[in-house]
């Protein structure tokens, strides 16, 4: 007749309850989580309270310029010179572009001269736009500095036409046709045989819009070396000039002279004041338009994101790593090393406690820090509610994963200080090195692909657009992996580490005291 086990192994649920009770009553652990949460909130609030932005015109303080918003509410760039006429109902504009030239001010290496040239995404062409207001809907067929003909509309949409350049010997014919809300772009080499480039549907386009010629040119981006091979972007003023002839209209385009306007404010730089101002010159059937700025999905004034309200994460992560590693090597109430089932219970308790605490802290820090920054005159770029919620939940999950990883390493190495050192070197240090920035972009990118720090990609809310010249680097808020892939990399470190720790741990606690320091 069998006898019951004198020391039955408790179920995992009972172990979790017991570990949760021990975790709550344990010295320092609840306090550490509270301090970590307060650090996240305090370092979102205090810098925002001390930040104030204002601009002056003489003795008068005025609000600083901000990026316009497109119909969807996103900050965009919308700054260019526009020679235009009203178009009522359906109609079309055809023009032959014979040259595209420009100016780049003080490029490297010596920054001591102004040179002729166009930057890759300088643009000149024809455009239909819902009025002269910045951020309004549009469709444009254009020539670029280095990417051939493109059809672009409503800031984010870009369709490629024929590659190559333009010259008097090889002109480009461009045509935009409106039929209701639908805009069709076509190009031709001879003005006879036309090739479709793209079609755009501009929902809600009013009956009367503006149609005409335009020119714009974003800044010349170069990279200045810093640190240990890192670099930061520097931008210089540029200008584009497009020359058109054979300009004809059909349908509801108003007759009369072309109106010359700027969308946004141009003409303030010394180059524009003393050399070539933005504008329109009509001579002998040729219309020459000159402009600067940009039309695209990324604003020129810049701004902060929700990531900038979470600088306290670094403090919180260090606190959590130390707390979790010490928790891994703490003995049971009987003075024994934790067995495998107890270690699993600790991972569940720790992960759940960190996730809940982090979620509460981040849910307070992000909206509160964002509001205080905006109250201080700082532009904060919103990615929309779904993306902001993803940042909050994803960052809390990242904190929980790192805490469990520290617990697993502490149990594997049986030295809390060694686990802390490894995680600081493998998680915190890589992120610090790339956001400062100190390392070359290629090295920084691989660090954020191959280390647990890849999980910081959950902070990304910015989108990299191929039709916009930017320094798409981590220090500027652009990560090499999408948010879900970054979290997957962190999981790929945490899951095996915890699995090895559970396999190495005794299946039942050993009552023999062990030196786990």
Task: Describe the overall structure.
- The protein is an alpha+beta fold and 517 residues long.
- It has 2 domains: 12-48 and 303-504; 77-296, Jelly Rolls, CATH 2.60.120.
- It has helices at residues 12-25, 29-49, 270-274, 313-329, 340-375, 385-413, 416-435, 441-450, 483-504; strands at 55-57, 60-62, 77-105, 114-116, 123-129, 138-144, 149-153, 157-160, 172-179, 182-188, 194-201, 208-216, 220-226, 230-236, 238-253, 259-263, 279-283, 286-291, 294-296.
- The strands form 3 sheets. It has a 15-stranded antiparallel β-sheet that branches. Strands 1-2 form a two-stranded antiparallel sheet. It has a two-stranded antiparallel ribbon with strand order 13-14.
- Helix 1 crosses helix 5 and helix 7 (416-435) runs antiparallel to helix 8 (441-450).
- The radius of gyration is 30 Å and the shape is elongated.
- Residues 1-7 and 509-517 have low confidence and may be disordered.
């Amino acid at each position: 007749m069998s006898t019951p086990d004198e020391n039955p192994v408790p179920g995992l649920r009972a172990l979790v309850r017991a570990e949760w009770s021990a975790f709550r009553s344990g010295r320092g652990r609840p306090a550490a989580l509270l301090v970590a949460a307060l650090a996240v909130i305090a370092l979102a609030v205090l810098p925002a309270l001390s930040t104030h932005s204002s601009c002056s015109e003489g003795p008068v303080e005025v609000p600083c310029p901000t990026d316009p918003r497109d119909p969807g509410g996103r900050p965009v760039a919308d700054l260019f010179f526009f020679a235009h006429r009203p178009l009522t109902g359906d109609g079309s504009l055809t023009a032959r572009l014979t040259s595209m030239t420009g100016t780049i001010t003080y490029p490297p290496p010596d920054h001591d001269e102004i040179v002729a040239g166009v930057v890759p995404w300088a643009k000149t062409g024809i455009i239909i736009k819902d009025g002269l207001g910045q951020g309004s809907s549009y469709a444009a067929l254009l020539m670029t500095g280095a990417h051939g003909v493109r059809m672009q509309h409503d800031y984010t949409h870009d369709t490629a036409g024929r590659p190559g350049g333009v010259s008097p010997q090889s002109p480009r014919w461009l045509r935009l046709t409106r039929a209701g809300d639908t805009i069709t772009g076509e190009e031709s080499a001879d003005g006879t045989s036309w090739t479709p480039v793209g079609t755009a549907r501009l929902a809600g386009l009013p009956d009367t819009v503006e149609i005409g010629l335009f020119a714009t040119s974003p800044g010349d981006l170069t990279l200045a070396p810093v640190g240990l091979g890192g670099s930061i972007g520097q931008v210089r003023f540029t200008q584009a000039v497009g020359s058109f002839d054979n300009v004809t209209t059909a349908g509801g385009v108003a007759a009369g002279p072309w109106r010359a306007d700027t969308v946004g404010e141009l003409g303030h730089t010394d180059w524009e004041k003393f050399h070539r101002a933005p504008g329109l010159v009509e001579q002998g059937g040729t219309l020459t338009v000159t402009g600067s700025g940009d039309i695209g999905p990324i604003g020129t004034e810049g701004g902060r994101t929700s990531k900038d309200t979470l600088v306290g994460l670094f403090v919180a992560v260090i606190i959590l790593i130390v707390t979790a590693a010490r928790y891994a090597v703490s003995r049971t109430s009987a003075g024994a090393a934790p067995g495998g089932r107890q270690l699993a219970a600790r991972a569940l308790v720790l992960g759940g406690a960190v996730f809940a605490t982090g979620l509460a802290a981040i849910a307070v820090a992000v909206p509160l820090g964002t509001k205080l920054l905006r109250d201080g005159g700082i532009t904060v770029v919103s990615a929309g509610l779904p993306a902001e919620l993803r940042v909050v939940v994803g960052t809390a999950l990242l904190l929980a994963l790192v805490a469990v990883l520290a617990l697993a390493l502490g149990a594997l190495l049986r030295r809390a200080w060694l686990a802390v050192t490894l995680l600081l070197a493998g998680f915190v240090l890589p992120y610090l090195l790339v956001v400062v920035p100190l390392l070359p972009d290629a090295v920084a990118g691989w660090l954020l692909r191959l280390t647990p720090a890849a999980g910081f990609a959950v902070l990304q809310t910015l989108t990299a657009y191929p039709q916009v010249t930017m320094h798409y680097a981590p220090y500027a808020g652009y990560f090499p992996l999408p948010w879900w892939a970054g979290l997957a990399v962190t999981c790929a470190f945490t899951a095996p580490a915890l699995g090895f720790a559970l396999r190495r741990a005794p299946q039942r606690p050993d009552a023999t005291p062990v030196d786990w320091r």
